[in-house]
Records
---
Amino acid sequence: MKAILQQKLKKLISKKSTWLIIIIYLTVGIGNYWFIHSEHPWANPYFEFNTSFFEYFVLIQGGGSGFMFILLPLLVTLSTGDSFIKTRRSSILSYGLMRTNLVSYIRNEVLSTGMISFIFVALCQFLLFFFSLFFTQIAIVNAEQGMIIYAVELLNAAPLIYILLIIFNSSLMAFFFSTFTIGLSILFKSLYSAILLPYLIFIGLSEMMMTMPLITPFYGKWFYNLAPLNMVGGYIWLTFSIFAVPMYWLVLNAGAYVVVANYFKHAFRKEKLLLI
Amino acid sequence: MQENRIEFRNVTKKIKKQEIIKDISFTVKRGEVVGIIGENGSGKTTVLRLASGLSYPTSGEVSVNGKIIEAGKSGILPENIGILIEAPTFIKELTGFDNLNYLSKIRNEITKEDIIKAMEQVGLDPKNKKKVATYSLGMRQRLGIAQAIMEKPNIILFDEPTNGLDLDGIERFEEIVTTLKKQGTSFIFVSHSMEEIDKLCDSVFKLKDKRIILQERMRDWHIVLNSLEDVERVSQLRKNVKITDRYDGKPAIVIPFKVDEDIKIFFDQLKIDYKVLVGENNDKF
């Protein structure tokens, strides 16, 4: 597994598009810092001038004036979403299968791609957090202003641990999206389907779930809260237990693995898996 | 008795109700090189896929290293096989060495030195930092051969193995096959051309009308004639005649025929007396 991870990491680093995606991500992130900064105090009356860089980093994740939650899944699918479809469209899949069995192969593929996505998003988030030191204000956390609701006690008590939690949540999300791209790479043969469909499904499904309160106000609230868009970043504005978000992504990751592994075996049995 | 490495027993394969191959039976023994020829679309690659477990028969049985392939049921593929099916394509962003290293780590049975050795055997430089994206067809083919042999499997399946190879590549490939054959490795080669694989194969089958038939092959026969005039008449009709040392004072030639019946028909038509000196299995008459 270690060597497979190394090779996948090498592949990711050697792609020019990876660096372009990081630059876009950081540019949008820094733009989001400026946007939030430009809003106070008139757009957000509760927002104080001495908002700390910790809060800025959390606020740009989603909800309110943050828009990184729209970008984060795209960051994953653009960086690692091509991994399995390119393998499938090369001889590497046949050569790989000849060296193991179907179950081990797909397990290693999901784990290695997932871990690379996890690490990649974690590094990008750390980098953006690091930039918040330069583009926002170094101040003491004051979460009383009500802009952040999710696990706010932890933010006040241990802001750095809170940042790690936020990054951990988004990295778990990255793991899920990479598994999702593998699943779609088995279903479709197109590179663009593998990269863009997970994102389009993410936006479409989120929109559907977030309009459910209009249809059924009581149950709709659950759909709204559990919409993927909220769970990527919008949750900082919602009343969730500290464990709710990581559990959400862990459950989705486990479910996605079971579905993808079984579909992989099914596609092989039906001789629809190998393209070469 | 030589162990059977691959056995096809009455194998039929259908894809979307269309029969690709029908009732095929053949075996490949330890250290044997079997060739399969046929026109494009005759099902050659399907035979390799069945032997590798990447596909499974609609009816009949394929066993590899004594185990019946049940890829459709258990998802367990046969072990100890190296394959090169169709034009090999690799991860373009990685070097040749990195691609092989990545594949080797799946089984994790060989060292970097083994990969280096396999690359050198096919004439690729393991230190070459060029990405596979910049490789020529011949270089990708060499890399494909290296990945098939690097773990020293006891069965190797090659699809059009000399495709894109230059003379040096072909010579290296032939040397690899000869060496591994001596060590007991079994091979199946498929090709559209008899000439490409004939030299290396112990037996060649032809896929025709979905069935497989043992292909009769041209062999050199040593034949003694009565006079130089007879030699001249034969030479005028057949271009690939070689004159060899006289036998008991009579002129002798080496001439290719598939079977001895063909020799009889040929010389009877010319009304030339002849004597077969060395036959198909180098038996002296």
---
Amino acid sequence: MRRLLLFITMMAPNLAFAANNVALSSTVFLEKTVADGSGRSRIILEEPEMVTPGDRLVFIVNYRNAGDAPASNFVVTNPLPAAVAFEGGADSAQVSIDGGKRWGTLPALRVREADGRWRNARPEDVTHLRWSLKQAIPAGAKGKLSFRGIVR
Amino acid sequence: MQSASSWSIRNVQLLHVVPLVIMTATIVFSSSANAAGTVAGTTISNTATATYTDPGGNPQTANSNQIDITVDELLNVTVATADPGPVAVTPGAPNQVLSFTVTNTGNGSEAFDLSTTTAIGGDQFDPATTSIVIDTNNNGVYDAGVDTVYTAGSNDLTLAPDQSKRVFVLSTIPGGTVDLDRGDLDLTAVARTGTGAPGTIVAGQGQGGGDAVVGATGADGVDRGAYVVQTATMTFVKSASVLDPFGGSKSVPGSIVTYTLVATVSGTGTLGNLAIGDTVPANTTYQAGTITMQGSPMTDAPDADAGLFASNAVTVQLGSVAGGQIRTVTFKVRIN
């Protein structure tokens, strides 16, 4: 108990300083197709206890304005882990295929091949995802962003 | 496997006071071009970053917790025969080579146990496996004394993800087999970490500390090679025609006798170093320069062409003659 008190004391100046605080939390689920025994199958999300190439992952980013003032110009950026290929499921997001230099919707982006030819960007080319919220997040408000990936 | 720090406001406040730059996902990763997929043991790390403006117009940054997932090992292997068709052999021949390609289609380095099966229905004989040899110098061809013999435990077949290795099976062909007998042989490669139905988990045994899970191949692979016996036999027919000095066919002094030697090779094999020889009969004299093979004249001298007359005998070197072919040699003598 004494340790906890000490901790809070140390944090206190920061609490006073920060008028708004947006907290982000990231979680990931493994998407599994389970046969129900009657010939049909259903998709379930579970903790990724066992992950191998080809597995489908669902990434979820929760945000919450834990402060007492609105947060404006709110932008969430999620670099895609190199071992994960983007699989969609993020309709409102902009994507980048060059490490976050240029942004756009996937159909608007082009990739230059080694032979110099240009082709349309594919989901597996995506390196970063970005969500830009138009409206400020009021104090206490929260939301959820998600996207899907497949283990390369 | 997942380890994620629990979500809390306290966490974010700590990050808040630390100067931050936009973080990229931690990449502990080698090659994404791998057909077998991400290498086992690779950590997938995910972090999201938020930027926003506070009421005072100051830019702020917040980072999420980092999620780390370790990629587990998928156990997969394929075996494929590398021979274009059944390998031709002869009865009783030792060290007859079948070639296979073993490929680690999993995503971790794995040792594979190799074995052969020869008791297979539908063929005519069972080749006796004498050794399994790994193509140590990777030239695709069996090199006796250079390529090393596979021995479980001491000379294993260990393959990196996506790596292929040529494996040779050496067999002795049973004696008593006949032309066109076929002997099948299966080579099986089994992942040492474990096999079973796809999805079977071998806890904690994956490369990089994770689990290993049996992939779609069942973590074992098998393919069939075959030997086919090819033998050849030769029949030999000698005939003579006589032309006497008067235009008839009487055998009198001065008559010219033309000997025709016909060698017929049958079967599916090939006879090597085939030679036809005939001694000039007594009371006759060889007529110089009269040797022909397949209608073409041959010289008598010991030179590059196949014909030779020496020690009162005619010899024609036919070399290798495949089954189904005929060689005809003629020469002439004069009756003394």
---
Amino acid sequence: MLPRHRRFLAICCVLIVVGFASFLILKSFQDNLLYYLTPSEVIAGKAPDDREFRIGGLVVVGSFYREEGNLTSQFTLTDGTATVNVNYKGILPDLFREGQGIIVRGMFNNTSVFIASEVLAKHDENYMPPEIHALSKPTE
Amino acid sequence: MAPEFGQLFLISGLAASLMQFLLGLNIISLNQTNREVLITRFTSIHSLAVFLAMLCLSYSFLIDDFSVLYVALNSHTNLPVLYKVTALWGAHEGSLLLWIFLLSLWGASLAYSQKFFDQTVILKIKSLSILGLVSFGFILFIIYTSNPFERIYPFPEQGRDLNPLLQDPALAIHPPMLYAGYVGLAVPFALALASLMSSKDYHWAGIARIWAINSWLFLTGGIALGSWWAYYELGWGGWWFWDPVENASLMPWLVATALVHSLIVTEKKQLFNGFSALLAIIAFSLSLLGTFLVRSGVLISVHSFASDPERGLFILMLIGFFTGGALIIYALNQKQSKPLNLNLFSRESLLLLNNVFLCSAAGLIMIGTLYPLVLELINSEKISVGPPYFNFVILFPFIPLMLFIGVAVFSSWGGTGKKLLVNINRLALLSIVIGLIISYLILGYETPLTTLGLILAIWTIFTGAMPVIKNLGSQTHQLIKNLPMALAHIGLGLTVLGITVTSSYGITFDDTLGFGQSKQVGNYEFKLISIEDRAGPNFKAKVATVDIFSDNIKVGSVFPEKRIYDSASPSMTEAGIDSNLFRDLFVALGEDLGGGIWSMHLQYKPLLRLIWLGPMIMMLGALCRLFLLKPFRRET
């Protein structure tokens, strides 16, 4: 084999490997993007129906319900204009309160209830995710 | 008066850092000896001034001077004294002050270093000058946007208290360690630029390596501490969340690791000079990026407590200036390099290859961290990139990286592959066999990735330990020569082993538990005995007693807590953990669901401790290199 041919072969191999790796990485990137929506955007039909996404909003005061001794809780999220009903089985974060801004991750089941697999609350007294801060301003 | 003095010291620091910068330029006519003496003095004055400013702020904390806004926001009369001291870096303003203090301290250590000789004095002057400019920029930033000495009037009777999450011994030393690592990278950065602008030779590499190892040491410790803290304090027993702020510390670590290895080649073989300089620039730029991400609040992150657009913009401008400026200097001063003729199996090319993998890992993390931000800027679409992305893509650089680490250990400078292959064959076979035995017979087969992870971890540990084992009978300095590398590689292997086993065989779930009831977690049975009230110095708590049984034999009790601090309304979770080297059993108290039933988070994590033991051994390796090797170097 001529050195030129060998070099050509080597470059081809590298390109194939790099190309394949980038393809897998990009695909994984696409698969793992989590969209972040407000309840209004969800109602407007922007929510993907085949994968998880996030909704950010305020927990409607008086909407929280949980049976005694049961891990599953229900509550409603709002951005001031639209609402979404959420169902979550698990421990709620320490900072979860009615009237507080939270973020939920999950998907809709076929009865238009959002089944959350994760609930995030704001980190401390003074912190608010920028999105929630933006949406809580007009109501305050 | 203390805050006013602090302010004064800060301004003196600003002036001294400006002088430090100006002395390095040729606009002041001085001979070189005087210039060196003066710049050394101004470097000390500058760090002394910042240190005194920090003392003033500490004093205000200790005497509960709530007329200082920063103290009022982050302290309380009932706060234990230890946390009054550490509250200094509990929020944005104070932590930046610490950042600058550590930067000036590294600068002073460079100024008084014995590493310079006559030929490299110019290198010392130029690099101190660059460090002066970096300090100048950041002190200006503090004074203009985030002054910790600002007063309020009328001042409150009582402070708002330090964030309860931060009232913890590990978190008291986590920020200083991490920051020491971040800003330590400013020294190789300054040395690289100084070299590019003056001599363009290889002298800088040996000096930069010392500070690169120092920073790496602190970064490793800081990241491990942060992970440990998140595990037991944040409440839910995870040890890595791919949170933007965690990523911001991991990226400089990866590049710093590459830098340390690249500097070896530059120092010993006079190769890759440009690449090392570029790595030094990137490493420090990533540190600055980390500061920006944490302090500007641009990303959806549990850490970004201080969001202020003005601050973000200022830091962004500083990053743009330093990174952009450095890259321009790099581009303009790049020497025409001689054509490289590398043997594929020589140590230098294997190190280069692994450095490329380390940088790609940092790059992939950066894409996942910054992409949401960029997308939001472009079309205001809000997304976040989840942990599955990071967990998946990190494998692409890391699997070959782990593979080649072992090969590189056995390679020789400029060497060919023939002898190498003979040496590593047996060890590779041994690692594969042991990995397969552990994965199939001891732990039980999980996924191909688990088996691969086990084999690679064992391979890294074996190949790391081999050079030391081979020299056990020989002279001490022969033995010690390989010790830093061996410890660092063994540490990495143990970490990977821990990560592989914990994530493949760990069990974690939420469930309900009533008094006297028990739940099965793997081979362990968790039984709730009681829940009682307890009063702490500045909080009230519910304490649960959970007994853990294995085959009906009690192996331990844990006492998870739910705390309500006097000052803040939301409650805090303190997990109950029973741990030994082989497994962690974890219980976090959820809520009272009524009817005597509580929700609980239960966890069984095998080999979890290795994830933090590994970094400790890596740090031991760095310490060996810094302190143990020196006396033997002089002898030989």
---
Amino acid sequence: MRERVVLDLSKLPLHGLGSASVTWWGTLGFMLIEGTGFALVIAVYLYLMSLAPIWPLNAPPPALLPGTLLTVILLISVIPNVLISRWARQQDLRKVQIGMVVMSVFGIVPLIVRAFEFPALNVKWDTNAYGSIVWTLLGLHTTHILTDLVDTLVLAALMFSRHADNPRRFGDVEDNAMYWNFVVATWLPIYGCIYWLARL
Amino acid sequence: MIRRVARLLALLAAISLAGCENWQSALQAHGASAISLKHLIIFIVAVCSIVWALVMVAMIYALARRRAAWRAPTELIPERERRMGRIVTACVGLTVVIISIFTLASFFTTRALSVAGSDDLTIRISGMQWWWGVQYLRPNPKQAFDTANEIHIPAGRNVHLVLEGDDVIHSFWVPSLAGKQDLIPGRINEITIRAERPGIYRGQCAEFCGLQHAHMSFFVIADEPQDFERWAAAQRAPATQASDEEIAAGRDAFMSKPCAACHSIRGTKATGTSGPDLTHVGSRKTIGAGLFETTRGSLAAWIADPQTLKPGNNMPLVPLAPEELRAISAYLASLK
Amino acid sequence: MTETIARAETLDTELDGTRLATALAQTWKTERGLWGALTTVDHKIIGRRYIVTAFVFLVLGGVLALLMRLQLAQPEARVLGPDRFNQVFTMHGANMMFLFAVPVMEAMGVYLVPLMVGTRNIAFPRLNAFSYWIFLAGGLLLWIAFALDMGPDVGWFAYVPLSGPQYAPGKRADIWAQMITFTELAALAVAVEIVVTVFKQRAPGMSLDRIPLFVWSMLVTSFVVIMAMPAIMVASTSLILDRLVGTHFFNPAEGGDVLLWQHLFWFFGHPEVYIIFLPAVGMVSTLIATFARRPIFGYLALVMALIATGILAFGLWVHHMFVTGLPRLGESFFTASSMAIAIPAGIQIFCWIATLWDGRPVFKTPLLFVIGFIVTFVIGGLTGVMVASVPFDTQVHDTYFVVAHFHYVLIGGAVFPLLGAVYYWFPKFTGRMMSERRGKWAFWLIFIGFHLTFFPMHILGLEGMPRRIYTYQPDLPWHGLNLFVSASALILAAGFLIFFIDAIISARSGNPAGDNPWDAPTLEWATSSPPPAYNFAHIPVVGSAYPLWDQPGSLNVASGLHSDRREIVITTITIAEPQARESSPQNSIWPLLTAITTTIMLIWSIFSPWAVVWGSIPVAITLIGWFWPSGTPEDEA
Ligand code: HEA
Ligand code: HEA
Ligand code: CUA
Ligand SMILES: [Cu+2]
């Protein structure tokens, strides 16, 4: 086959940023998968609720304090998260380093509160189907906080290493921030289900 | 030895039952629902066959027709493209019409089935691994009674069935009378059947339910109304008394062995519920959920080794001395 | 700064043809030997591996089918006892669906999509390697368990309570559930890769209306995977939880519900069948254009039909539950929506026939399989429309009628196009042609054997034969047809045997193919057969949906990429305008190590919930190894 050069790409940047980066789209893809998963588990909750004569089944509704506290913390964490995303776009290493440390803390604190949330559900997973579904909802969300925390810690370490000053790293920081927003956003409907639907 | 006898008996039983072809077929419809379902099936299949034939004709013509001179792949003729577009659109329109007709026909058939008139008899059917519990419910509880694996109904009358799954999901299906309906643990389903004429209709569990799903059949026997009443009266009665010594010995053996813990025989101490009610087992056409025709021999074979005849079923092999086995089978065969 | 200057010399504009080829081959190469095999991230090597493995599972599943047919040929036969038979049909169904049909379609996508969109590797190549290893682990898990008499025995949809803690003691049902986790993980990974490859890595100029139809079908399929697979993950996880830690999702005594399982399963299970079917129609559209020697008629309508099928697929699941006693009105809705699928299906059939009508068909083996597909799939689709009718379905649900329906659509609708596609793309995969003579034999044996095997099953179903029975009594009128079916299955198997023999012989000594033996119009044929490690020396620039038919013998390309860095072009989603020269990851052992740690965690978690805690630590470590930058040019921007 004869090749005819009709286009010169040598002026293009060597790395795509934002929506021009494949990792950005990959993160979005995995968010879509996990979002569907969350939606389905919530659907299971509603389905079981619609079948039950009373809800919650043989258990007092969960205590509000730990869950609400966690919600507040997650919502506050969005502020530094948005900032770090902006700093990463500006490729400001110093600020990003500080931001990563802050976000690591914001990853650990909710886990501590979460430890108090499980007992506050007032039901065990093997008591009845209601217990099973609230534990699953909470457990599923906890794994998301946990995985994002590990991701954040590794990235934080990277940002203090020789690999730090690189547009690719800053892209990773942005993607990680986007994922954290997702973790916070998915919590809100779960919070509504676990704590408020059970009080209707 | 016992196994060989059992196998031989099974074969004999099978041969004696042969000849009743097509007693479990959606195409041999003898019940009100099955008949209207058969009409619907024939209608839809006929229309679909025509659709298929037309598509085939079009395809064969498209492949075989003669063509004009060579043309480069990308050289399309706009006029012809437009004409093909119109034909394709028309075919799609026709598809829409046909599926709309199918949808309406389905809807009206279903509706006709669910308003099939008043029910004068209610029977509770419970599906268990791998047999059917049958309970005749009567307004007067004294008239209620239990049996298993065999359902007698009066011909020409609507019979209301309440379906309950006791362990896993089963499905109640007598193709010659009606479509199937599942028996689901934790839920109650209902179905109305009606046999237009007396006869024996075979049914079979249609939802996979474990090891012996293949041997979970049953019979619906439609009788003339007066025969049905006679049958029901006989079934209501407690078990017949022992008429000779061997039978009495059999009864005693049955009561002293674990049998009574699982089976009920009304009028005796046997009140177990984990196996089929045996009060009138001798009067039933088959044992083992359609496995063999009921004879003294097949009863003996079954009791001697249920696990070979129906591997995995929930009746254990109860060790019995040869004379006990003989006596118990005589006793059970006498329970008409 | 010095680096950029040094780099300039490695731009492809600075190198002549052969030097460029050598440089690219060096950059994109896979090491020789075992190490290379374990570390490669080349989508072609992984795709080929994936395809071969899936076909091995087809043979294994087919042998199980023959065993079932042997048992069912006679009433009261004793080839397989009930326990073994239940394992065999469950293995057959689960293996065919999860280890053959879905993976083989994904695998064709892994091999072909990057070539067809004109890029050098799939997006996330390491994830791709990981996906294959995980798929392999899932398959081995299932088959080793079967060999140890621990094969699942609850049917491919594992209805509770039969698969629950009370009625399925032992680990068989857990094996089924965890095999699902493996294969879904693999499929989800490939789905994301394909979506991103199609969105961002298309050749410059390949706007949405110039995407090859096979690529469109893989794109839609990938979205269906992304939306449907989480449902089965939720289902199988809750089943494992019920069985392992005593939750009560499916236990009616404690507020759970038996039908919840069916809703979750079929919310996935119905889209699943289109996950198998949509790539197949993509293949059909591709093959028809090539062998009818004209562009496909109704490109836009076909794309819309793909998308409509993908969307409608999520509104049909209840048609598998018509006899569970759901409210009548709801069921009527699902009848209507199921029948509505006939519209996009019809559009495709009509457009294909129109294409054939106006084209000038070349009757090579691939086209034969396509014709066999139309004949067979229309029957299967029409029986689908029949069972979509609630009252009709109450008579045939869970009978051999349904078994006939789904083999018609699975084999006729998906396997026929797949075999045609193998004949078609084999020269691309191997550089050699398959044999026309053996191909025709294989086709006719498979086509005739198929209809003789499966058509009588419709009648068996109407005559009252339920599915999943290990035997039947001689007094039932089914033995004649069953014997006939079993004998015909041998013809079918003989056809498959010839196909496999042909593939093996041709791979070694088939006629050399040349770059584009069929004079096909899409980009995968614009490079050599088999393609070099870097796919294209220069990235093609596309001006139509049929670039190779536009100016025969010449190809528009782009220049300006580096040859010392694995470089690909990122383009915009809609009009495919170049945005960046991005790097594509290096070979790596980490995906394999991650797959191993993941496998350990998943299998261990069948036995203890703590596996999730302790097992995730090695998984995290291997993941960090995977993503830790290595300082190669690929890391630098
Ligand atoms: C590749 C896989 C595939 C495909 C493509 C289909 C396609 C369809 N299927 Fe099928 N199906 C399965 C695989 C598939 N199915 C499997 C595996 C099962 C069983 C699972 C199990 O229980 O184990 C199943 C079961 C199944 C059921 C449940 C049956 C039961 O369990 O009782 C139903 C019910 O509605 C159904 C319907 C349909 C419909 C309406 C289509 C439609 O998409 C068909 C549309 C196509 C056409 C209609 C033909 C072409 C159109 C024309 C030529 C136009 C003219 C047409 C008309 C005028 C009508 N399928
Ligand atoms: C894509 C999917 C797929 C494919 C290709 C097949 C292929 C075949 N299937 Fe299967 N089938 C299913 C999907 C599939 N099936 C599913 C989902 C079920 C439901 C399971 C359940 O109920 O849970 C099912 C169930 C099912 C049943 C019903 C079981 C039951 O309900 O009890 C039967 C019965 O005949 C059957 C038969 C066959 C046969 C004869 C083939 C043949 O086409 C196979 C032909 C292929 C080969 C034979 C292999 C290649 C041959 C060689 C390489 C030759 C060398 C070997 C020898 C000569 C030994 N299948
Ligand atoms: Cu009971 Cu099948
Ligand atoms: Cu379906």
